[in-house]
Design goal:
Pfam families: Rhodanese. It contains 6 helices and 5 strands. It is α/β, with parallel strands linked by helices. It has a single domain, classed as Rhodanese-like domain (Oxidized Rhodanese, domain 1, 3-Layer(aba) Sandwich), CATH 3.40.250. A 5-stranded parallel β-sheet has the order 1-5-4-2-3. The longest helix has 13 residues.
Length: 133
């Protein structure tokens, strides 16, 4: 099978048009009332590895629907005037998500260089989610 564009190329193109925060920049934003971190990883990843404190969990598969105010799945958090900082495990999904949401018109979108793995390895604060049965 031959693809017109690889997933790596998609991520590179997305990364070229979005804001990428360094770990240091992201850590300085943690806890600010006008900033919302958004974890787009699968719920299993979140439960196994924890998350960034205060992050809103929005699974990648539903993200565009949760952001769209005309969607029946809209989540009010995305209607707030905040800076949104998206992250996934390694910054590939968050690059694609940030680019898509920026294209949709969501303002103040960024993602974290290296993703959650880099955050965790750098000693960033971690929260353990409550496990639901």
């Amino acid at each position: 099978m031959t693809l017109n564009i690889s997933s790596k190329q998609l991520v590179q193109e997305a990364s070229a048009k979005i804001k990428t925060l360094s770990l240091e920049e992201a850590k300085l934003l943690l806890g600010k009332p006008d900033v919302q971190f958004v974890d787009i990883r699968d719920v299993r990843e979140l439960q196994q590895e924890g998350t960034i404190p205060g992050a809103f969990h929005a699974p990648r598969g539903m993200l565009e629907f949760w952001v769209d105010p005309d969607s029946p799945y809209f989540k009010p958090v995305f209607g707030e005037a905040k800076q949104f900082v998206f992250f996934c495990r390694s910054a590939s999904r968050s690059a694609l998500a940030s680019a898509a949401l920026q294209d949709m018109g969501l303002k103040n979108v960024a993602h974290i260089a290296g993703g959650y793995s880099a955050w965790k390895e750098s000693g960033g604060d971690i929260a353990t989610p409550e496990k639901s049965l």
